[in-house]
Design a protein that fits this description.
single chain; alpha/beta; Arc Repressor Mutant, subunit A; D-Maltodextrin-Binding Protein, domain 2; ten-stranded mixed sheet; two-stranded antiparallel ribbon; 13 helices; 42% helix
Length: 320
């Protein structure tokens, strides 16, 4: 008889394409993972995975089978949440998420809100800081999962692209440059530029800008801030042209308090990145959050919401 453990093992292997990493995530040995997969293949009389140079990969029939497995596991999670006992309801789990200033403005709060609707017993804490600060929190295990504005190259951390992010120039509607829609690279030497340079003076926004324009172009950085809210206040009062991530000022752009200026001929688009410890097991709430976050990411790197009713309908169809 196929067991729930076998299904969870296959799901873990399909996500990581590595038997050792799947075992670490599940808290079992690589031998136990291999045994579970082999047992499943024997019962089904099909080949689910095959070895490749970098690890393993699903066969064509294995990929089709995995889809049904994921639906079944989602249904089970749903049932557990719906029919949890009073004892379970009293023992909420904790999940601490880290985020740098850009993704912490809208992306992460929105994602956490949706996650808690599905997992109401999980107590969530969000920690915010610079990308470097968040990486340190990950390494000392003060947070389990994080979202930062740049890919991490720190040893011991895994970084995967999550959603698109834009670095933009903005001015107050009362600023003299608000009548414009674009600025040029040459004009950057004359406008008063306001930036978020982080608490340690190692902010990434200015670094990204310098990478995208010619080194010969001088920048007139008039003010540096270690706090995004202070930076936004200075921009709103007409202190100059601000350089920051679009998510951080989406409300102000929507209500007309600030206006975006496009830098002609320069692409400042980037990505948010999902980061976590490379070779360390994570808690069950963190594992569920990773699965949840990835399920909402579409091919363009934005979030998409699948209604719970749609998931249930699909699972019921698979179980017929």
């Amino acid at each position: 008889m196929i067991t729930l453990h076998q299904l969870r093992v296959l799901s873990a292997v399909a996500k990581r394409l590595n038997l050792s990493e799947a075992g670490r995530a599940l808290g079992v040995t690589q031998t136990a993972v291999s045994h579970a997969i082999k047992g499943l293949e024997n019962q089904l009389e099909i080949k689910l995975i095959k070895k490749v140079r970098t690890g393993v990969e699903l066969t064509e029939v294995g990929e089709a089978f995995r889809t049904g497995v994921e639906n079944i596991l989602n249904l089970l999670d749903d049932l557990m949440q719906t029919h949890s006992t009073k004892k379970t309801q009293l023992s909420a789990k904790n999940l601490t998420i880290g985020a740098s200033h850009g993704p912490s403005s809208h992306l992460v709060p929105s994602l956490l809100t949706r996650f808690q609707r599905n997992f109401p017993l999980v107590h969530i804490v969000q920690r915010t800081g610079t990308s470097a600060e968040i990486e340190e929190l990950l390494l000392n295990r003060s947070v389990e999962i994080a979202f930062i504005s740049n890919p991490s190259n720190r040893p011991g951390l895994t970084s995967e692209t999550f959603t698109a992010e834009r670095l933009i120039f903005v001015v107050a509607k009362s600023h003299r440059m608000a009548k414009q829609t674009k600025i040029t690279k040459s004009s950057l030497a004359y406008v008063q530029l306001l930036i978020d340079n982080g608490k340690d003076g190692k902010g990434t926004t200015l670094k990204i800008l310098r990478q995208r324009i010619s080194e010969r172009i001088k920048l007139n950085v008039a003010m540096e801030f270690d706090n995004p809210e202070a930076l936004k206040s200075a921009i709103r009062t007409g202190g100059g042209v601000g350089l920051l991530y679009a998510d951080m000022v989406s409300d102000e752009l929507r209500d007309g308090g600030l206006k975006e200026l496009t830098l002609a001929g320069v692409n400042l688009n980037g990505n948010n990145h999902l980061v976590y410890l490379k070779d360390a097991p994570i808690s069950l709430p963190a594992m569920k959050f990773l699965e949840f976050a990835r399920s909402f990411k579409n091919r363009n790197g934005s979030l998409r919401i699948r209604a719970r009713s749609q998931i249930k309908q699909q699972v019921r169809k698979e179980l017929r």
